[in-house]
Design brief:
This protein is of the alpha+beta class. Helix content is 36%, strand content 26%. The chain contains 16 helices and 14 strands. The chain is globular. Belongs to the Tdpoz family.
Length: 407
């Protein structure tokens, strides 16, 4: 999430003849801010990776540039003999003389709020913001924290560290819009159409879903779904006033209608879409069933919203089941993420019950997974630093991948 923090401004005015109105412009220098959290799960397994070797976060975007957090469990400086852990922020995209402010926070996980913070925000800098000259330039601390103290502190809990990073990219522009601006409210078309669904005014079609009745409007459904459009206006159902829907729970169909009218997920879906009670129940969750409904009725945006929720739950134990769902309901984006994650964590994934399910029920996915494994190893051979997936399989070592596992 990004926001803007305004810095010094300069105003220039041009005096003209009394018959001509004066003009003005304003040069605004400000920071575009964004934050990212790196969770290091399995800190004890990361130790011993070697001095100068790091664990990298996913790239994140702030101010039009890509950034990454580098954590060095054994330190970056050989002279320190692994006495300290090191943390740096790196410019991960092309850029020249990118000026920025930084903040690094090691999170206190005891709940006392005593975080360790290194910040350039909210204080004057003698030489101004820092300049990163080119891609790969870094700013940070070789001696971020003494390792012996870190391992007995409240910053390490359940073998897990959490590091927050905030980047403020400095930008300058001539701003005219703020001198004369008109605020436009957010679109409320979804709320208006949602009222149609709630009060049933003008409804001309009824759906019977497991005995529960839902009233709707053919034109709205046809405008949103190519399947409904075909059923109502290209087929034999144009005169029908009631349709029986099979193989759907009423709760799922209600969430489907909510999206069709409001273009958002219902609160029920949002509340259950974040976590799974167990891996075996993934296919029975409301978000998984809504993915099936979106596929059935050709609602591509709803599919992607469901894929996004499911993607947040990908782990070694769940990836095989989610991959099977993605394949069944033609969720291509989610399927690609699952294949890549499974390939990068193959040794661990192969030991899960989900992988056994995959072998028995989705044999075609095994060949796709092997192709993805080959692609991952090709990436590494062209310059990547991670160990080969085949090397992981040969000795059963997955510790490097566990460190980067999403939780």
């Amino acid at each position: 999430m990004t926001n803007r923090a305004t810095s010094p401004t300069a105003t220039a005015e041009v005096e003209q003849s009394p018959l001509v109105s004066p003009t003005s412009s304003r040069s605004v220098t400000e920071t575009v801010n964004g934050s990212h959290r790196l969770v290091i799960q399995g800190y004890s397994l990361a130790k011993g990776i070697g001095v100068g070797k790091h664990i990298a976060s996913d790239n994140f975007t702030v101010g039009g540039y890509q950034w990454a957090i580098y954590f060095y469990p054994d330190g970056k400086n050989p002279e320190d003999n692994s006495t300290y852990v090191s943390v740096f922020i790196a410019l991960a995209s092309e850029g020249t003389d990118v000026r920025a402010l930084f903040e690094l926070t090691l999170v206190d996980q005891s709940g006392k709020g005593k975080h360790k913070v290194h910040s350039h925000f909210d204080r004057s800098l003698e030489s101004g913001p820092y300049s990163l000259k080119y891609r790969g330039s870094m700013w940070g601390y070789k001696r971020f924290f003494r390792r012996a103290l870190l391992e007995t502190s409240d910053y390490l809990k359940d073998d897990c560290l959490k590091i927050n990073c905030t980047v403020g990219v400095v930008v300058s522009a001539i701003d005219c819009s703020r001198l004369h601006s008109i605020q436009v409210p957010e679109s409320n078309i979804g709320a208006h159409f949602g009222m149609l669904l709630e009060n049933m005014e003008g409804s001309d079609i009824t759906f019977d879903v497991a005995g529960e009745k839902f009233h709707a409007h053919k034109l709205v459904l046809a405008a949103r779904s190519p399947v409904f459009r075909s059923e109502f206006f290209d087929g034999m159902d144009e005169e029908k006033q009631e349709i029986v829907i099979t193989n759907f729970d009423p709760k799922v169909f209600k969430a489907l209608l909510h999206f069709i009218y409001r273009d958002t997920l219902s609160e029920d879906v949002e509340s259950v879409g974040s976590t799974f009670s167990s891996v075996s129940s993934i296919s029975e969750t409301l978000i998984a069933k809504l993915l099936a409904a979106a596929d059935r009725y050709g609602l591509e945006r709803l599919k992607l919203m469901c894929e996004s929720h499911l993607c947040k739950n990908i782990s070694v134990n769940s990836v095989a089941k989610i991959l099977a769902l993605a394949d069944q309901y033609h969720a291509s984006e989610l399927k690609a993420v699952c294949l890549r994650f499974a390939a990068e964590n193959l040794a661990a994934v192969m030991r899960t019950d989900g992988f056994e399910y995959l072998k028995e029920n989705c044999p075609s996915l095994q060949s796709e997974l092997l192709k993805t494994v080959a692609g991952c190893d090709e990436d590494r051979s062209s310059g990547g630093k991670s160990r080969s997936v085949w090397a992981q399989l040969s000795d059963g070592d997955t510790s490097g991948r566990r460190v980067r596992q999403r939780t």
